[in-house]
Amino acid sequence: MDTTTYGLDIAKRVFQMYWVEPETGEIMNRRFSRQQLIEFLGQRVAGRVALEACGSAHWWARKIAALGHEVILLHAKFIRPFVQNNKTDAADARAICIAAQQPGMRFVAPKTADQQATLALHRLRSLLVKSRTMQVNQLRGLLYEFGVVLTAGRVAGLADVRERLHEVEQVVPGTLFDALRDQLQLIDRIDGDIKKLEKQLATWQRQESACKKIAGIPGIGPLTATALVATIGNPAAFKSGRELAAYLGLVPRQTGTGGKVRLGGISKRGDNYIRMLLIHGARAVLFKSKNKGPWCDQILLRRPVNVATVALANKMARTAWALLAHDQTYQHDYAAMRQAA
C-alpha cells in the first residue's frame, strides 16, 4: 500500500488537511481544531504529513512525528505556485500536498527543542542589542541638542558621558537630566541582560560537541558556532558544503537564458542573521588575524575586499559542514598535510 501524503495548513486554532484516501481514491479536505487534529492523526496509519515551514511548524513536526508519521517541511515559496485561484485554507492544504509529492522538491529539516531554544536566545540577544543601540543613539542626539558632544563609539561614548555628568547637569535642564540618568541605568540593565544571554549560549556551546568541532575554525566564535549548529541541525540534510552555503545565501545569484548563464552578486537567501555573523567573522580574520594563511592573502590580492570577505565566509560555512558531516575536528594546516601526503 502506498503511503498516504497529507497536506496540512496550520494556524493558531484552525487547521486544514488535504489527502486522498488510498482505498477509495476519495479526495478529502477537512478542517480540524487543535485537539481534533491530534486525535485524528493518532488514529491514522503512519503516513507523510507535509507542512509549510512557518510559525510553530517545528513544534508540530515533533508532535506529529511522535504519533508515528513522517513529517516534511516545505518553504512557503515552493508551495505558492501550486495554489490555484484564490488563497484559502483549503487551497493552501491542497497546494502543500501537491508540492510535497513533486520530484526533486527540497525540504526543511525539523529542529529539535534545544536547537529552537538556542536560536530563540540569539533572537532575544539581537533585539536587546538593537534596543541598546537605539538608546545610546538617542542619548547622544539629545545631548547634542544642548551642545554636549560625546566621544565616538558606544563604549567610549558611555564612559565619556558618565565622566562628564557634572558638566551635563549644568547644561541640561533638571527635568531632562533626571530622565537622561534613568536612560543610562536602562542601558546598564540591557547590557546585563545581553551578558546573561551570552553566558547561556556559552554554556550550551561547551556542552554541545558539534559546537566544539567548529569553534576552532578562524572567524567562528561562540555566537556563530551556536547559531550555525542550531540552524544546520542534522548535517545530512545538506548534500554538500556548497548546498549549505547556498542555503545561507553566500553563493552568486545566477540568471541564464539561451544557454548562457550570468553570475551576479550573492543571492542573500536564507537566514540573514547567520550570514551576518559569518561575514563579520570573516572580516575579523582578514583584518585582525596575524596568521590568516596564504589563501586569504592570495584572494585579497586578486579580489576586492568585500568579495574576499564573502568568499571567506563561504569557505567557513563549507568547512563547518565538512567537520560536522564527517565528524572531524578542525586542523589549521589540513591543506598542507594533504599536499604532502
UniProtKB/TrEMBL annotation:
NCBIfam families: transpos_IS110
UniProt key word Iron: no
Domain Transposase IS110-like N-terminal: 7-145
Every Transposase IS116/IS110/IS902 C-terminal domain range: 212-287
One Gene Ontology molecular-function label: DNA binding
Coiled-coil stretches: 180-207
One Pfam family it belongs to: Transposase_20
Keywords carried by this UniProt record: Coiled coil
Annotated protein name in UniProt: XRE family transcriptional regulator
GO biological process: DNA transposition
